[in-house]
Amino acid sequence: MIVQILCFILAEVAAYLTCQFYQSSPLSLIVPYPIEIILFILPVFGLVFRKPFSYYLYNVMIAFSIAGILSNSEMFYSFLDALYYLGLRELARYVYSLLVTFKADVLHFLTITWLYVSSELLVNADREIEKLKREEVEVKGVFAYYLSIFAMSAAIYFLYPMLLTPLSVKPGVLLALLAVIAFLTSVYLAIRRAT
User: Can you tell me whether residue 20 is helix, strand or coil?
Assistant: First the structure.
């Protein structure tokens, strides 16, 4: 139950950050105000299914935040070309005028991803602990274990920008590598703690 509450808190923080980002983006001019309330309601429904911060919620948050990176992508210009080809020149110009001036950094996506990965790490650690308890293995210091997982993911979150700049590595590659290392470390710690 502790993990569900922690994941719910992480989901609500991510929803708040996404809502703030969405309200400052040009997409909020196209889609009316109450739509972002979905971000706060979905984690409540997730509590019923034992996973407040699901992959689907993460995708919804990314969709609400897509305007920040859309104007810099080739997909955006391909979409505008398709509108021109279909004869919707005025709509294409309107969409272009809305999104071309809005620039956002990757930090928002990094924060949302960090909160989601932290939630997944906590859920997976909880599943492993439950499995050990079913096998009648005594597990001590569960809360400290959860806290160490969160601290490790926070350390990766704060070190990530410092590692990214001097190495000039693509952000997705380094983030995926760090996520795999964090997951393997949490599994190792769960196994070590159980024995």
Answer: helix
